[in-house]
Amino acid sequence: MSKNDVFxxxxxxxxxxxxxxRAARGEExxxxxxxxxxxxxxxxxxxxxxxxKKGFFDTCRSPEDCCxxxxxPLRRFPFDASIIFSDILVxxxxxxxxxxxxxxxxPTFTDPLKEPEDLQRLKANVDVNKELDYVFKAxxxxxxxxxxxxxxxxxxxxxxxxxxxxxEGGGSTTYSKAKRWLYxxxxxxxxxxxxxxDVIVEYLLGQVAAGAQALQVFESxxxxxxxxxxxxxxxxxxxxxxxxxxxxxxxxxxxVPMIVFAKDxxxxxxxxxxxxxxxVGLDWTIDPRSARERTGGKVSxxxxxxxxxxxxxxxxxxxxVKKMLEGFGTRGYIAxxxxxxxxxxxxENVAAFVDAVHQHSKLTVKKA
Length: 368
Ligand SMILES: O=C(O)CCc1c2[nH]c(c1CC(=O)O)Cc1[nH]c(c(CC(=O)O)c1CCC(=O)O)Cc1[nH]c(c(CC(=O)O)c1CCC(=O)O)Cc1[nH]c(c(CCC(=O)O)c1CC(=O)O)C2
Known about the structure:
This protein is an alpha/beta fold. Helix 14 (288-295) links the parallel strand 7 and strand 8 (300-305). The longest helix is centred in the middle third of the chain and has 25 residues, at 186-210.
């Protein structure tokens, strides 16, 4: 694919269910749209079957597999949106780092960044159309195969979350190696965050050109930072990403809703609602009513049922959903979990969650 080809208009099937896009833009559709983070995942036996055939990142590099995995949950549940199957760590790989997915250990970097000099090891000008074209191909293929049933969301990890993985070398409870950089090497930290931001902007634009109809930015490690560090090392880059992506899309007469999900960043809710994103995604530590008050109608909200509530009996799931809907209201609201589905979750309870959102919200919208 040449650089220009990815910007060619693509003849995609017409969208039949736009409830997610309307809610993202602050409207009140006929029912509250619902999807789940990690809806294409290990809790589905059909996902495990495909994944058993090859390594995790080889799966990510196969547009056909990504397409199939993205479509799997849609065959089971009446979700109102889909998210392309991929991973946030494809960006450090595109910048030249080796990342493996080890069973029982998760993402593991062969040679994490240790000192500021290590930044020289990273590719300076990443050609995303070359390095990440497999994601773009997966998006285009999926957008066709989804047949307009629901919109397709593209995504990326945010700069701080990716930086923390690149330094830590994998998952951690404290992320103290990565945080050490913030306190000891603030200038180099900003340099790395800026490098990541530049790649992320091109990556998100490439995803839209390939067919993504919305974009979610995962700042999954926001909660490791305090409010002061978040304002210095995360928020400016989140803002920069949204502004640059939107400006560039505008030049082409395009616009897609953007969602920021900064997990555990309840201390920054006001700032997040003024950071150029249409939607703020929430984890379960925030009360829906107070989230509405604090964001003052400036953005739509997405979330935020505790994923572990899916371990509850179905009747209780329905009650929890009803209360969540009462708290958020049905306008400018996208139902979701407060983080991704866990591998041991029962698909039947996922179905109960989706049905409860549709049923309760249909009644409320009708009454209004
Ligand atoms: O549990 C493990 O062994 C490693 C899991 C892991 C992965 N990337 C990772 C992590 C760290 C973590 O989530 O804590 C690293 C990773 N990937 C992702 C995030 C963002 C987040 O969840 O907050 C993160 C960071 C999570 C964190 O550190 O808190 C994003 C991701 N991974 C994935 C997707 C795609 C999708 O669900 O369609 C998505 C994005 C969209 C979404 O949430 O729906 C897919 C993915 N990545 C991964 C897996 C499991 C590995 C496998 O299939 O063999 C899977 C599938 C699944 O969750 O069952 C690998």
